[in-house]
Amino acid sequence: MNQPDIATSREADDAPVLTARGIRLGFSGTTVLDGVDLAVRPREFIAIVGASGVGKSTLLRALTGLLTPQAGRVSIPHGRDADSRAWSMVFQAPRLFPWRRVRANVELGLEGLELSRDERRRRALEPLALVGLEDMAERWPHTLSGGQQQRVGIARALAVRPRVLFMDEPFSALDAITRRRLQQELIDLRQRTEAAIVFVTHDIEEAVLLADRVVVLGREAANRPAGVVARHEITLPATERRDHPDFADTVQAVEAAIGEH
Q1: pLDDT tens, 53-101?
Q2: Is residue 131 domain-resident?
């Protein structure tokens, strides 16, 4: 039987920044996912979709190294240097500390790196500018809207200059208007960051709108563990995708793959 393994390695610039081979995951003797293979290349945007309870967030935790697989291997990259990290995470809720101002919340991930206080401040302000909140750096979190708080969470994740940015249903708790606005901002933002993005969502339109590739998790039979049942390359123009005549057909193709499993 394969032995579980978590490895870190320094990758060539054109090699995958994250790979998973033959991953099996489970809890208390029950296998949830099995035989999962995935490779993520630099600056690629991967969306992971599937029915509720299929194991999307479980797979995300394994890819970050927070969950050890029962079998298989996950290769996680090192950060580029001592002042960056291999990966960072944006959660469904912003998880901001109410006793820290916006800039101090963004600095949180930088505090374990080899940076001076002045450098941490500068590094926090850069991603705040990227998400349009540089003028709110000294505000308290409770004075921000839900969408603004989630932008702070994204800025905090980007501040550490990750090789891979994981996003676990980051817009699902927002109202429809704010969600649509942040989706567009993420489309714009990814052109200005070097990070690859692995994005879990239950919203199929959101996955097709944002991703270069959509990975569908599902079960071949009701009593079997889930695995990757389909992969869809999204080739529609990124900046005008929602209005493209093939957008609806692409969404339906992904929905059909989920419905069959």
Answers
A1: 899 999 999 999 888 999 999 987 666 676 778 899 998 888 999 999 9
A2: yes
Contacts of 101 (CB under 8 A, 6+ apart): 137, 138, 139, 140, 141
Please report which helix (H) or strand (E) contains residue 231, including its range: strand 227-233
Question: pLDDT, tens digit, for every residue of 42-56?
Answer: 999 999 999 988 999
Nearest of 45, 51, 52, 87 to residue 66 by alpha carbon: 87
Q: Determine the residue type at 108.
A: L
Q: Residue 93: phi, psi to the nearest 5?
A: -100, 145
Assigned domain for 244 exists = no
Q: How far is CA 41 from CA 45, 76, 89, 91, 213, in A?
A: 9, 12, 17, 22, 11
Q: Which domain holds residue 135?
A: 96-161
Q: Is residue 132 part of a domain?
A: yes
Closest CA to 216 of 26, 47, 74: 47
> What would the 3-class secondary structure string for 133-202 be?
CHHHCCCCHHHCCHHHHHHHHHHHHHHCCCCEEEEECCCCCCCHHHHHHHHHHHHHHHHHCCCEEEEECC
* Tens digits of residue pLDDT in 207-254: 999 999 999 999 887 788 999 999 999 999 988 899 999 999 999 999
Position 116 in a domain: yes
The total number of structural domains in the chain stands at: 1
Q: How far is CA 109 from CA 195, 227, 228, in A?
A: 16, 33, 32
CA torsion 108-112-118-123 (nearest 10°) is -60
What's the pTM?
Answer: 0.90
* Cβ atoms of residues 182 and 209 within 8 Å: no
